[in-house]
Each structure stands twice: as C-alpha cells, then as structure tokens.
Amino acid sequence: MSRNLSALSGRKGLEDNLFEQLGKASEPSGAPDPEALRQLAEVFLMGPANLYGAASFYDLTRQENRGKEIHICNGAACLVSGTQIPLRKELEDVFRPDKIGELACLGRCHENGAFLYRNRTFSGLPAGAAKRVLQEDFSDPGGHFAIGHYGSPLLTAPALRLSDYREMLDGMFRRPPEEILREIQQSGLRGRGGAGFPLGIKLEACRKVPGTHKFIVCNADEGDPGSYSDRYLLEQRPLAVLMGMLIAGYAAGAETGVIYLRAEYPEAAGILGDAMNAIADAGLSGNNLLGSGFAYRFKLIRGQGAYVCGEETALLASIEGQRPEVRVRPPFPVESGLFGFPTLVSNVETLANLPFIQHHGDAAFAKIGTAKSSGTKLLSISSWFNRPGVYEVPMGTPLRVVTEDLAGGYRTPVKALHVGGPLGGIVPMHKVADLRCDFESFAENGFLFGHASIVAIPESLPMIEYLEHLLAFAAHESCGKCFPCRIGTVRGKELVQKAQTEGCPIDPILFADLLDTLEKGSLCALGGGIPLPVRNLLTYFGEELRPYFS
To answer: Does residue 141 register a pLDDT over 90?
Structure first.
C-alpha cells in the first residue's frame, strides 16, 4: 500500500471517495472503460495504471466482468449441496454462457441455489423458478432461515428500539471514555472475525495514538463461504451493529464510523441505509450528540467482490481506491490506517456485542462463556442439516449441542464438517464429540474455530474435489502481494487438477514443502491459513486421497 496514494485519496476523504467512483464507473457495463479511468486519475492526481490495477482486481469491476448480467454463487456450501450445476443449466436457457458470472459467497448457505440478479439475491427456489424470476417480479427471493439459541441470548434476543439506544447513549455520555474503555476490556470480549484478538487492547491502542482524525471501520465483508451470521446482524439487527460502532468510537476517541459492506449483500445495504437515516433523525449522529460535545458520523461503502478485503489492511487499501493488497505490519492500522490516520478495524459480530456490555455491564458479559473466551458466538449452519440457520451459544458449548440439538442432525450421511470458513478446520465426524465452541478447544485439537460457520461435507462428495475447490478458491482470491501465496496456491491447484485429469500423481514431499512455504512465507492468513484445512484432509482422509499421491 502506497502512503502517497493514501494521502492523495484522502484529499477528498469519504464524501468523494475514489473506490466508490470506480464502482460507479463499472455499473453501465460491468467494468470501467479506459476513458473513465483516465478522468478519475486526473481528478485524484494519480496515474491511470494505479486505477486500472485496482479495478482489475475485483470480481465486479475487472474486465472479465464486462457484459455479465447475472452471477451465481460458487462458494463451498453451494458446491457441496450440488445445486449450482443444475442452476447454471437452467439459467443458460435464458442467458448466453458468457453472460453468467460467479461470486463467492452470496450468504445463502442455508438453502443454496443462490444467484445475484439486478442487485437482488435469490436462493432456495424450486426447479424451474429461476426462469420465472427473470421474466416477472418474483415476490419471494428466498433467504429465510431459522434463528435460535442455547442458554441466554445476547445477539438473538429481541431487538432494542432506537429510543432504548438513545437512553443508553445518554447514560454513556455522562461517563468518561476511559471508563467505557475499561469496561470493554474487563468484559473479555475477543474479536469474532476469526482471530479472537481482544477488542479492548485494540481500542486502547487506537485511543493512545495521537491523531487529528480517527476512524472505526466495521469489517462487514463476510467473505467466508458458509458464513452468514453477519448477514443476520446486518439485516435483522442493524442498530446493534451501528450503535456498537458508535460506542467503540467514543471509547477510542474516533469521530467517524465506516462500514465496509460486501457487494454480495445488496439487501443489507438498503437496510443499513435506512437505519443510518433513522439514527440521524433521532439526533444520534452528527455534532454534539445529546449535548455531550462528542461528534460521530457514519459512512457506508459497498465492496466490489474480493475475499481478501476481509483482511484489515487490504480492506483499508480498498476504501482508499488502491489495489487491495495486504500491507506489512508494523505500522498497525491503529497507528496508521485509513488515509494514514489511526484506525480500529473490527468485525460485525464483535461490535454488535458492545451495546449489551454498555447496557448490562462487563460482569454480565464476562460470566457467560469460558475464562478465556467470554460471551456467546453465532454459528452459521449449512443446508445439509435438518434445521439450517443461525444459532447463538455460550462460548465453550459442546459442538454436538449445535449440530444435533439445535440444527437437528443431518439430512444425508456426512463425513466431515468444515468449520470456520475456507481457512478453518475440516473436522471428521469422529472428532466432533471432542470439540467445544471456543478458540482454545479447536486449536488444541488441530483445527481452527474461525468465524464459526459449519459446512457439512456429504459422504457422496469426493474429498479430492473439495481439496481442489479450496486451493482454487485461495488462488482466485490471493491479492498477489507475496510470492508464496500468489504462486503457491496456483501450483497447489494445478497439482490436484493434474492428479485427477492427467493421471499425474502428486509427490507428497513436494506437496508438504509447498504447504510449509505457504504457511511460513505468506503475508496474511489467506496463504498462511490454507495449509491447515489441507493438512486436515491429508490426516483424516489420507486413504481416500491416496490414489492421487505417489
């Protein structure tokens, strides 16, 4: 990430945002034309190559997207469901094949058959219905799922009203920010995006760094195929997310909240926009909130289709209109983040917990869960379960309570659960009973809890196909900044493909070296994390994969 480009983009700030302008330039045909890029380069005092480099990265602005009229989901949950091949054939009766694009993931992992058309997402439609969608106004686009909990609910409890938040904030503004920060730290709240880093430490670091301006950035780029718990919060609990951002801003001394929303969630964009307007009408954004002297404003920015933007430094580069490549740290975003200013980046679920802590106190939150992982966790359950949906459980809950009691077991014989997104652990069924829903339990058993999505892999799916899918996903989504990830994921994908199509067995020593290089040499968790599920497959499904290895 170039500091000079950050400064040039920052001249116009968030109101005339370069990244948003790139998106608008792509809307007519699916990709910006050279003249549009040249004009934007002049306005923002950058070279056209810089803008082309950014636009060529995203699924919805790259030249390959030009002319695309509809996009189908190719995420892991849709892959294992077997719905997407029949869906594509159905759509090809209406569209030429070159008019159909792909995206991962549309967040409809609970029913699959997902596609994006004219800024609306459809899923779970009966056979033949997709054609009707394209010919008429289809009133029910699908997307419905169960919501439940085990124990006392926090995020799935009845939603607070705006008047409740007004009363809560009025009480908060009567207390010093340092006290609010200390309460968050004592709650033990850890990041829910996958890494599990304590939020209080990040908030304190951001507060301590001097700066004329500071940002809270909500990472709503929920890109892990299989995950849709953030979509639940964004669409059904938007006030909790936005008020959490405001509370974080007060604690850290930040006056601007930016929510970076993935392009694949168009419905959430409208809901968040309405919620922001309601907050403004209630006097809870702007200057001198409730006479406190504290100012806070919200900004919604929609992504353009890139998994790596879930990584915080790539996300910030994206907002600035740069190519979303991962940045070497230090400096960390809390020191030098968006436009070079101190920035705290946190995910949707993490921030949505802050209103509960503010309303009920840190002790009420800390007593839920375990000593090292307090609070609750939302889990996204895929369509091979009898009751797919979003379930909230206290940290430390046995995994079988989720899979059996809440989700009702499986609709088909299952041989493994992929937990925590593409970089998460692949758990064979005999290990499910050993696991609890917390970071420590999964790590101790050689897995990763991650974002806590659960994709059930049916016995009918060959694991070599799933291995190819994982490596192909990583290769497609790599930002290209570091050689181990940019080259290594592609070479891994090629080895697995040739083993299937050309009878070229994989050298296990070479493959192990490749995974070791990815793990140790990659800049971020994409290249560094993909070896874990691959090794899980080799460990627990070695006999099934043996014919493909020399």
So the answer is: no
